[in-house]
UniProtKB/TrEMBL annotation:
Family: Belongs to the biotin--protein ligase family.
Keywords for this protein: Ligase
Protein name: BPL1 ligase
Keyword check for Ligase: yes
Coiled-coil zones: none
Gene this protein is translated from: Hlcs_1
GO cellular component assignments: cytoplasm
GO terms of molecular function: biotin--[biotin carboxyl-carrier protein] ligase activity
Signal peptide extent: none
Length: 244
């Protein structure tokens, strides 16, 4: 539906589709995305000029959306320490332990404008199949003696879109360095080790992401290099390869 409508609307008009439940949810690499009642599920349409900071770095959009989801919760007064985080390139995590959301971005270039469809889903009030944000809030209340209220999917979708709009504006004005400090504040990878090429490959340490959104790793004796996934759909960080 949104794919048919997006070319018919005025450029300045926003467009979002929200589902209470999905029966044919899609994940990365053709994976099925389970979408029971209690998830925040939506597809957002945005346009990005090709000749802009973000237009020249389109892969960054998935990172901005992941950050926006996390900040939709952690920017609420009192909820700053709820342990919601981002995992490169497009996952929302509880600490570094369990996935509770994801982002899928599709882009179409028409003349000098990118039409971007951003699908994002994250568990708000459904404990299965993994864990949800309200579980994390309940856990935080129990541990810290606080009385934070549960959050709703519609509230968090609205907050996510609002935060995303601000992040895009900052990125367009200042480029990657305008948003990366906020991104690193919530990501789970600082100092983590990965293997390059295959499961027995050399060990490298994650140091950050480059100007185009690819992961940067430091292999001893070889300096910092940018890497990307090898196509493995089970774990994006299982094996990483260095482009030739």
């Amino acid at each position: 539906l949104i794919g048919r409508l997006m070319f018919e609307l005025p450029e300045e008009m926003g467009l979002i589709a929200i589902a209470v439940r999905q029966t044919q949810g899609k994940g990365r690499g053709g994976n099925v995305w389970l979408s029971p009642v209690g998830c925040a599920l939506s597809t957002l349409h945005i346009t990005i000029p090709l000749h802009s900071n973000l237009g020249q770095r389109i892969p960054f959009i998935q990172h901005l959306v992941s950050l926006a989801v996390v900040e939709s919760v952690r920017s609420i007064p009192g909820y700053e320490d709820v342990d919601l985080r981002v995992k490169w390139p497009n996952d929302i995590y509880y600490s570094d332990l369990m996935k509770l959301g994801g982002v899928l971005v599709n882009s179409t270039l028409i003349e000098t404008t990118f039409h971007i469809l951003i699908g994002f889903g994250f568990n708000v009030n459904n404990s299965n199949p993994t864990i949800c944000i309200n579980d994390l809030i309940a856990k935080f209340n129990k541990e810290e003696g606080t009385k934070l209220k549960p959050l709703t999917a519609d509230c968090l979708i609205a907050r996510t879109v609002t935060v995303l709009e601000r992040l895009i504006d900052i990125f367009q004005e200042k480029g990657p360095n305008g948003v990366l400090p906020r991104y690193y504040k919530y990501w789970i990878h600082t100092g983590k080790q990965v293997r390059l090429h295959n499961e027995d490959g050399p060990i490298a340490w994650i140091v950050g992401i480059d100007d185009y959104g690819f992961l940067q790793v430091h292999e001893e004796g070889k300096g910092v290099e940018s890497v990307h996934p090898d196509g493995n759909s089970f774990d994006m960080l299982r094996n990483l390869i260095v482009p030739k």
